[in-house]
Design goal:
Elements: E1 4-11, E2 16-23, E3 28-32, H1 38-48, E4 51-56, H2 62-65, H3 68-79, E5 85-86, H4 93-96, H5 99-105, E6 124-127, E7 130-136, E8 145-149, E9 154-156, E10 161-162, E11 165-166, H6 176-187, E12 195-197, E13 204-205, H7 206-212
Parallel strand pairs: 3-4, 4-5, 9-12
Antiparallel strand pairs: 1-2, 2-3, 6-7, 7-8, 8-9, 10-11, 12-13
The structure holds zinc ion.
Length: 220
């Protein structure tokens, strides 16, 4: 029986939740959105002691993706095996290739990153050995993806949906209507019971947000 466990590490000045998800039975797991503070992520990995089989990215913003290249390099050296970076959707490539430039604005030393595998709607990914569906949820960024497992009743939604809020869309490439559509037409129909982890602050359930999130207005 898998024993799935999760931990979140706030990274970067933006306090972004880097997620560690692993199976205590197999000792294998996945790191999601290592935006920075790679030494802190490595300390946390040393404490829970699992082999990282891949790094997943929900979208291309610096606080989610800025540490991915450095973490991959460090883990491959430690583990002596490839650690692929998977995601987001290819439409976020312009953000991933602008990480160095974005970082200089915040005095952060980041690296651009090109994933080993782009993700698209309908793909599946392995997280701690469990199969998760990939949902393309644009609006916050054009290539944002979410990972959902109806079997485990768990979703990882990045900056699409928060407890009591939704992702910001005041970027030149932002699209608020697309964001709300993705939440209401792709995420919420998966069921009120789904618990989610998000990029900032505490998680929640789809049911709680459907009922009380002011940005969703009780619809859905
Ligand atoms: Zn973001």
């Amino acid at each position: 029986m898998p024993q799935i466990q999760a931990a979140q590490i706030p990274v970067t000045p933006f306090q972004q939740n880097c997620a560690l998800i692993w199976d205590a039975e197999t000792g294998r797991g996945t790191v999601i959105d290592p935006g920075g503070d790679v030494p802190r992520i490595l300390v946390a990995l040393d404490q829970v002691k699992f082999t990282v089989d891949r790094i997943l990215l929900t979208h291309g913003h610096l606080d989610h993706a800025g540490g991915a290249a450095a973490l991959k390099r460090e883990l491959e050296a430690r583990q002596g095996a490839p650690v692929p970076i998977e995601g987001p959707d290819r439409r976020d490539d312009f953000l991933l290739q602008g990480l160095v430039e974005q970082g200089t604005r915040y005095q952060m030393e980041l690296e651009n990153v090109t994933p080993d595998r782009w993700l698209a709607e309908g793909d599946t990914v392995s997280i701690a050995g469990q199969e998760f569906a990939v949902l393309h949820c644009p609006g916050h960024t054009p290539g944002h993806v979410a990972f959902v497992s109806p079997a485990l009743n768990v979703a990882i939604v990045g900056d699409v949906l928060f407890r009591g809020s939704v992702g910001r869309t005041d970027f030149p490439y932002g699209d608020h209507a697309a964001l709300i559509d993705a939440i209401e037409q792709k995420l919420l129909p998966l069921g009120d019971q789904i618990q989610f982890l998000c990029g900032h602050g505490p998680g929640s359930t789809f049911g709680e947000e459907r009922r009380s999130n002011p940005f969703l207005n009780g619809r859905g």
